[in-house]
Design a protein that fits this description.
Blueprint (H helix, E strand, L loop, with lengths): L2 H10 L1 H15 L11 H21 L2 H17 L4 H18 L2 H4 L3 H12 L13 H15 L3 H13 L5 H21 L5 H20 L10 E6 L7 H12 L3 E4 L6 H10 L4 E5 L6 H14 L5 E4 L9 H5 L3 E3 L2 H12 L6
Parallel strand pairs: 1-2, 1-3, 3-4, 4-5
Helix pairs in contact: 1-3, 2-3, 2-5, 3-4, 4-7, 5-7, 8-9, 8-10, 9-11, 10-11, 10-12, 11-12, 12-16, 13-14
């Protein structure tokens, strides 16, 4: 049975599969494993996400992708009092439901994924390491920036970065890529392991938006190159700082940039691309489960604007070598420097080396 068909079955029935598996887990193991305190609804939502992760991993034929998600859950659970035993038990109930419910030829694609995930949950979690730079001015700025935010000094945080640019210590693009990007990854890591609250994470995001605005005003500019790029995060992806940084890089290079922000429906991306006669469309996705939205957006664009190349990026593609090509894109990049290089290549601009 075709993997994409199995993935579609999983997605369309995710709510039902998750509900049945959660009910069995709740009845059989939740109390014994100390998991009942999290509530039935929370476990149902957890298992629904597991089904969607399985769908993405089936499409990629990648047990490692599902294992990576289980590693993420193991760390998050450990920080919040959810044991690996509870996560394993819930996943075993889900596997039993899917074996009963799917056609045999569809189910046979899933055991390698469950086995990889089970092995991950059974193994000790590695020590979580910082994403911050460890040396040089970027390291000093990153730590100083976070210290200002921790003290509630938004102005000081923004001033620290803009002054470094004004004094010629780093360029604005360097600060975005070498300071702000790792800071955001680090804040996400600290939230994930339970060392930051949601409010603290949101505060850093808000301050970073202000810092980006200040840095964008200090970006070097080159003459307009007569190219237009439309940039947006796909539907379901509520992250947009990464695409704002990518947008700033294109603007610096002389492009007219139309940045649509987070959670942009495919139809809106198409309409804006038509309105502004885009030369390039760049799509961002953070989670593997959002690749379905990337594929749907690419399909719609191919139908109505086949001549416009599509560039995709974001952490949704960090663990897969060729999923972007299968989804209908012409290139993939996971940082702003590579995004600009790929964009220039796709529209026929000379490489800047």
């Amino acid at each position: 049975m075709d993997a994409s068909f199995v993935a579609t079955l999983l997605r369309t029935s995710a709510e039902g599969f998750a509900g049945l598996a959660a009910s069995r887990f709740w009845e059989d193991d939740a109390n014994d494993l100390g998991a009942a305190g999290d509530g039935f609804g929370a476990w149902k939502a957890h298992l629904r996400e597991q089904v969607l992760q399985l769908a993405a991993a089936v499409e990629d034929g990648s047990p490692a992708m599902f294992a990576g998600h289980q590693a993420w859950l193991r760390e998050a659970g450990s920080a919040r009092g959810v044991t690996s035993d509870a996560l394993q038990s819930a996943c075993h109930h889900l596997a039993a439901v899917l074996e009963e419910s799917l056609p045999p030829e569809g189910w046979q694609l899933l055991p390698p994924l469950f086995a990889a995930g089970d092995e991950t949950l059974a193994s000790p979690a590695p020590v979580s390491t910082s994403h911050l730079p460890t040396e040089g001015l970027a390291a000093k700025l990153a730590r100083g920036y976070l210290a200002c935010i921790d003290e509630g000094d938004e102005r000081g945080a923004c001033d620290l970065l803009s002054e470094a640019v004004k004094q010629g210590d780093l360029t604005a693009p360097q600060v975005m890529a070498e300071v702000l990007s790792p800071v955001l990854r680090e804040v996400g890591r600290l939230w994930h392991i339970g060392e930051l609250s949601i409010a603290e994470e949101h505060l850093t995001t808000v301050v970073t938006r202000k810092a980006l605005a200040r840095l964008s005003a200090l970006m070097p500019r080159t003459p307009f190159n007569d190219k237009t790029v439309v940039i947006g995060s796909v539907a379901g992806d509520n992250h947009d700082i990464g695409i704002q940084i990518v947008s700033a890089y294109f603007e610096m290079d002389g492009w007219r940039t139309i940045c649509l922000g987070a959670n942009t429906p495919a139809e809106d991306i198409l309409q804006v691309s038509l309105r502004f006669d885009a030369d390039l469309i760049a799509l961002g996705a953070t989670l593997a489960t959002q690749r379905e939205a990337v594929g749907a957006t690419c399909a719609l664009l191919r139908e109505h604007r086949a001549e416009t190349p599509i560039l995709v990026g974001g952490t949704a593609f960090s663990g897969s070598d060729d999923s972007w090509e299968r989804l209908g894109a012409q290139a993939c990049a996971t940082n702003p420097v590579h995004a600009l290089e790929a964009g220039r290549r796709l529209v026929g601009l000379e490489s800047e080396g």
